[in-house]
Design goal:
The chain is α+β, with helices and mostly antiparallel strands. The protein contains 12 helices and 15 strands. Strands 3, 4, 5 and 7 form a 4-stranded antiparallel sheet that branches. A 3-stranded mixed sheet has the order 1-13-10. Strands 2-6 form a two-stranded antiparallel sheet. It has 2 domains: about 10-60 and about 185-205 and about 305-444, Cytochrome Bc1 Complex, Chain D, domain 2 (Orthogonal Bundle); about 85-180 and about 210-295, no CATH class. The chain has helices at about 10-30, 45-55, 85-95, 115, 180-185, 190-200, 235-245, 285-295, 310-320, 410-415, 420-430, 430-444; strands at about 60, 105-110, 130-135, 140-145, 150, 155, 170-175, 210, 220, 330, 340, 345, 355, 365, 385. The longest helix is centred in the first third of the chain and has 21 residues, at about 10-30. It is globular, with a radius of gyration of 22 Å. Helices cover about 25% and strands about 10% of the residues. About 50% of the residues are buried. The structure holds heme C (2 copies). One heme C binds next to α4, α7 and α8.
């Protein structure tokens, strides 16, 4: 895992730290011994550092949580004009309502990123779901004509998409929160792969390698979207601008169709609607979305100041019954200066060497809720979903990828497949213990 020849001493220290931190909770919890590291079962994190390195380590700070700028780009002032350069200016682009003259549509889902990513602040989540559809043909998933994402709106009555007969695999996908995702992007592939390797075999997550659009063909472990279909926030921004808002940009210059039929007759703005420039090669708005998303703090705990005994006990039970095998409590980002996404993204001081507490491994699992839509990974990934990140849980009212669980109890009840043993263990707890697990979940 650690290559002494290619890492400087500092890099080695940091990547060792990141990996151990990621492994710690999973190992403490794992039913089977982890190859080469059996002694780690017994050790606390600080003892691991000392035994691994024989020296004191650089302190690892928690990523800042709450609303506002994490310092990845300068804050600027509310008077700033729309641009990618300051937090205020980039947020204006994320919030901006686009119109037909800006290139909106011809088929689209909403007019602004913020329409679906708004609560408790821009970049958060919402109750908005989007529709996907397709069908099986000789054992292989085939996208609905015009792409598996069905756009719910159009700029002309003749363009409205509808799921066509014969597409019997249909799914709803809830909008995801983006808070803290700059840190998630800065987590190394090695850390995510080590988490997968340390999981009990019957719970092991699938890490999918996905193309970084701006990274000239390079692949990274996917971590964003319900199918971990992207590894980079810039790639996600390009995809969302086209597929949610109908706005083309240099990396995705072609408009969507309406159920497979061309919309060119209604498309009044030349493609790509977001143009490349020397300063912003992927389009100015795409850079603004990316900068804004990378600058978001991680979600705040519900009641960070008063950790009641019930919450502390609840977390211990959550670990004991195996929930934390997939809902990974903590991991550490790559050091500042690390080049990611094919060299297009340098981890800043604000994002580097930070401990995050996402309660997700960002890997795909079959817990019996898979929506049947194929996007990335193995053929079985069709029936897998990404472990929902539980940070910020108290700010959401609908749960699971389809938003159809309206209570936490129902979300737990739906865990089958790879999560069956954990779900059963939850139901074997006394009602007092179950209440503590729920108190812990509500504290996130
Ligand atoms: C119509 C609603 C809608 C709009 C508008 C929208 N999104 Fe999303 N967003 C979603 C949904 C739904 C998902 C989950 C998609 C999936 O995985 O199937 C998502 C997921 C994401 C994610 C992944 C977050 C994570 O942690 O996995 C990012 C990043 C994102 N959107 C960025 C954007 C940006 C940038 C814009 C504006 C250009 C935008 N979105 C516009 C609905 C929307
Ligand atoms: C094998 C991996 C795995 C285990 C073990 C597991 N989960 Fe999950 N969990 C997932 C996946 C995957 C999802 C997303 C499923 C979906 O959206 O269809 C999820 C979703 C959730 C959600 C919904 C969160 C949201 O924002 O929508 C909650 C709550 C949750 N899990 C709690 C638990 C608890 C409590 C346990 C232990 C009893 C547990 N999980 C064990 C993989 C796991």
């Amino acid at each position: 895992m650690f290559n002494f020849k290619t890492h400087s001493r500092t890099m080695l220290l940091c990547s060792a730290t990141a990996t151990i931190l990621a492994l710690g909770p999973a190992i403490a919890n794992s039913a089977e011994p982890v190859p080469n590291t059996p002694q780690l079962h017994q050790l606390t994190y600080s003892k691991v550092y000392i035994s691994m390195l024989g020296t004191e380590l650089l302190p690892i700070d928690d990523a800042p949580t709450g609303q506002g700028n994490n310092g990845h780009i300068p804050l600027g002032s509310p008077e700033d004009e729309e641009s990618p350069l300051t937090f205020y200016a980039a947020k204006k682009v994320f919030d901006a309502v686009e119109d037909v003259a800006d290139g909106l549509g011809p088929v689209y889902n909403a007019q602004a990123c913020r329409e679906c990513h708004q609560s408790p602040m821009s970049g958060g989540s919402s109750q908005v779901t989007v529709v996907r559809a397709g069908r099986m043909n000789n054992g292989k998933f085939v996208d609905h004509a015009g792409g598996s994402l069905i756009q719910d709106r159009a700029i002309h009555y003749s363009l409205q998409e509808q799921v066509q007969d014969g597409n019997d695999i249909t799914a709803l996908r809830l909008s995801l929160s983006i808070l803290g995702d700059g840190f998630v992007e800065a987590v190394s592939d090695d850390t995510l792969l080590a988490i997968a390797a340390a999981q009990p075999a019957d719970m092991r997550g699938e890490a999918v390698m996905v193309e970084v659009l701006e990274g000239s063909g390079i692949k990274r472990v996917g971590r964003f979207g319900w199918k971990s279909q992207h590894a980079s926030l810039l790639s996600f921004a390009v995809d969302a601008y086209l597929n949610e808002m109908g706005i083309t940009s240099p990396l995705m210059p072609d408009e969507n169709t309406s159920n497979g039929k061309s919309v060119a007759a209604y498309d009044t703005v030349a493609d790509p609607e977001e143009e490349a420039s020397a300063q912003y090669p992927f389009g100015r708005d795409v850079h603004a979305f990316t900068n804004f998303m990378r600058s978001l703090k991680a979600p705040a705990r519900n009641d960070a100041t008063t950790q009641t005994q019930a919450i502390i006990d609840g977390q211990a039970l959550f670990t004991q019954i195996g929930c934390s095998n997939c809902h990974t409590p903590a991991m550490v980002t790559s050091p500042p200066g690390t080049l990611l996404n094919g060299g297009t993204f340098t981890v800043t001081e604000a994002l580097g060497n930070k401990r995050i507490r996402p309660f997700s491994d960002f890997l795909l699992h079959d817990i019996g809720t898979g929506d049947g839509i194929y996007q990335t990974g193995s053929a079985e990934a069709r029936n897998k979903m990404r472990t929902a990140a539980l940070w910020g849980l108290h700010t959401r009212a609908r749960f699971m990828h389809d938003g159809l669980s309206l209570t936490l109890g129902n979300a737990i009840q739906r865990h089958q497949g790879q999560a069956l043993s954990a779900r059963k263990a939850f139901h074997q707890l006394t009602s007092d213990q179950q209440a503590k697990v729920l108190a812990f979940l509500r504290s996130l």
